[in-house]
Write a structure and sequence with these properties.
Layout lengths: L1 H28 L2 E2 H8 L5 H14 L3 E4 L5 E4 L8 H17 L13 H12 L7
Antiparallel strand pairs: 1-3, 2-3
Helix pairs in contact: 4-5
């Protein structure tokens, strides 16, 4: 009997961990009310479970915001500090393309590009001698 209780406890902890991770992602995407989160996690979680999870998230994440309204809304306002691996690969590929394929007559377009692309274009246009990678 004790083994079944312990197994159920582990299952509940797994559901709670998964629920908190999913909840943080939902709150990063946009604002949600407790009722919206309850509907999302039904029948796994009760309203009180969601409220406890929100309290735990609030204690762990500095960017957690409770927006005073009726009903109150919650969100996580986080600025992305790093790129997703796929975004990193896309930026790398685009920069390499600009670096190796930029020609002198296309450099007038470079004024509208972000700084990293302008620098790569300038090196690509200046000739092979300055292309130290």
């Amino acid at each position: 009997m004790a083994a079944l209780v312990q197994q159920q406890k582990k299952k509940d902890e797994w559901f709670k961990s998964r629920r908190i991770l999913v909840m943080t992602e939902l709150l990063r995407d946009r604002e949600h009310t407790t009722d919206q989160l309850c509907k999302f996690f039904q029948p796994e979680a009760t309203r009180r479970d969601v409220q406890r999870d929100l309290e735990q998230i609030e204690s762990c994440i500095d960017d957690f915001r409770r927006i005073p309204a009726r009903p109150p809304r919650y969100c996580i306002r986080t600025q992305a500090n790093s790129l997703h691996p796929v975004e990193t690969l896309a930026v790398y590929a685009a920069t390499r393309l600009v670096y190796h394929r930029a020609s002198g007559h296309s450099s007038h377009c470079a004024r509208r590009w972000p700084g990293c692309f302008r620098a790569a274009t300038a090196r690509g246009v200046s000739g092979p001698s300055s292309r130290a990678v």
